[in-house]
Model the fold of this input.
Amino acid sequence: MAMNKKGMFFTIGTIFLIGLLILTIQTQREEPQSISTRISTMNYFVEDYENDLQRVGEIVGKRALVAITNDIIKQKEYRTNVKKDFVELFLLKTLDNNPNKYMKNTSINDWINQIELAANKLNLNFYAEIKEVTLTQSTPFYIDVKIKTNNELKGKLAEFNFNSTITSRIHIEGLEAPIYSLSTYNQISRIIRFADKENVLDNTLKGYFMHNPSAPSYLNRLEGKTTGSEYGIESLVNIQELADKNMDIKRKSIADYIYFSELNPTAYQIQNTKNWFMLDTEHADYYNLKIEE
Done:
């Protein structure tokens, strides 16, 4: 999260502009300048625009998820409509109509303004209007942001009107799972890192997350939901970590969304593990672990 997003925007915009300037300089050396070359330059502009839109969607989208997560932790409560919150941050840089510090100079519209200025320097007029932004969970580990824009590009000899539908994919690894901060009074935080389910005890001690369709998805977690999803993820709570913080210990299934909620399926000690390593039968079966008799 430490990456300078303003710098990233500047870099992408600069690469975009330099590439087009080179094309224009090459074109200007040709006498007479052909119509086909001018149109080719505009085609390059469109192609670069759509490629950059995909990359910037990922940058802005991840920033918006950081903003939502930090608001949950600060307000000590989950959001009620994460998809709506995301679109507000993505387009307006606000959350609940308040400017958000994590989105400074980082909205999709800021980037579009930079591209319009770059086009002007090439004697082109470019206009883009965002028609729709949608957020979906596409896998347990990725969020998809679909961006639809209506675009207009005008030059001296040609005019392009085109629609773009771009999908940016955001990897959620590296984002914080707010369930830990909310449930431990900010004494313990957990950054999402993924592992397979082959070494469950080791994953638990290291705080890794694993895919489990019985668990809630990442987006549902931001709303405090505990229902299962085909894109569900979970960690198993390291009870020793809680004990080290002098926190009250509960004898229940250590699947995080169960342990930190009112859910309380019958839990059992798991063979050949630490005495606090308890799971309900559904989780024991999923991870191929045996319950002590």
Observations:
- Residues 137 and 143 are 5 Å apart (CA to CA).
